[in-house]
Predict the structure of ADP-ribosylation factor.
Amino acid sequence: MGNLVSQYLEAALDRMANYWTKPSRILLLGLDGAGKTTLLYKMKLGEAITTIPTIGFNVETFKYKNIEFTAWDIGGQSKLRPLWRFYYEGADAVIFVIDSADRYRIDEAVHELHRVFEDDALRDCKLLVLANKQDQPDCMNVEELREKLSLHRVTRNPSHISKTVAVSGQGIDEGMISVGSSRFFVLVVYGKTKKKP
């Protein structure tokens, strides 16, 4: 049943992509080492690449499931986080990546997520939380993260948590398809783009 629903949503996304021309502007945020850059290049290239810590940002435009994105992967080191706010303007959505195996820094990740969404520039932004590194021993599952994150206190906009393993690509489709349903991409793309003439 779930596979049938995923196939239906994917087909719907393919059809919707024909109506919009402007890429959706996505911010990839999260603490350093969460897997943001790995995720970005897995979506763009379809393969995992060796990455180094991002100092500054990476920006890529690509199609994923026939929807065009411009994704900004912004470094997550503590000294770079105050600079995140300079990238908020014009963002359609935030994908906040969490290292599910890093229990030591989960409170720090929660604090940063809440701080990000206190900014008025993201008032209308949609949120996808990717619980990355689900292949690691003793990682936090989605239910545990949902409780810790208190997403209802972060944003009144549609939000979703999806479990992923960025290096293998596991869960990326599920997260992006659930985001692509009426909970996310329809709202993101419809509100920010123009239909083709």
About this structure: Residues 20-65+74-192 form a domain with the Rossmann fold fold (CATH 3.40.50.300). The two ends are 37 Å apart (CA to CA). The chain is about 35% helix and 20% strand.
